[in-house]
């Protein structure tokens, strides 16, 4: 029981340092805040899926991906996919790319309209 509490304290400390320790908890300043954010985001997505139906929700996701591809251009979108494909539950795509010596050009991630 004490090890579980210690683990929670450790995660809370990391969250206070700005690290995302809960998937979907980005922006939370504590472990509890990140858990609440993740739960709310998940519930929000589920509610939207129920409103649109499975097919409509899938279509919405496709449109979002297409819009992002247009913003970044094909090359930037492809580069972002390379990085995302390297990610695991333990490490981000950037961390894995660095470990494996794979060069990811993040300058391609900026919107083409910014240039």
Automatic annotation (TrEMBL):
Composition-biased stretches (Basic and acidic residues): 7-17, 47-82, 105-115
Region (Disordered): 1-115
Top-level taxon in the UniProt lineage: Eukaryota
Family classification: Belongs to the small hydrophilic plant seed protein family.
Name recorded for this polypeptide: Uncharacterized protein
């Amino acid at each position: 029981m004490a090890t579980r509490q210690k683990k929670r304290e450790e995660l809370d400390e990391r969250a206070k340092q700005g690290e995302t320790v809960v998937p979907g908890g980005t922006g939370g300043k504590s472990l509890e805040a990140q858990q609440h954010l993740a739960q709310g985001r998940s519930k929000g997505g589920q509610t939207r899926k129920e409103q649109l139906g499975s097919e409509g929700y899938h279509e919405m996701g496709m449109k979002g991906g297409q819009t992002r591809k247009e913003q970044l251009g094909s090359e930037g979108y492809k580069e972002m996919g390379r990085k995302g494909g390297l990610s695991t539950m333990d490490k981000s795509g950037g961390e894995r790319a660095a470990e494996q010596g794979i060069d990811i050009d993040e300058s391609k991630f900026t919107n083409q309209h910014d240039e």
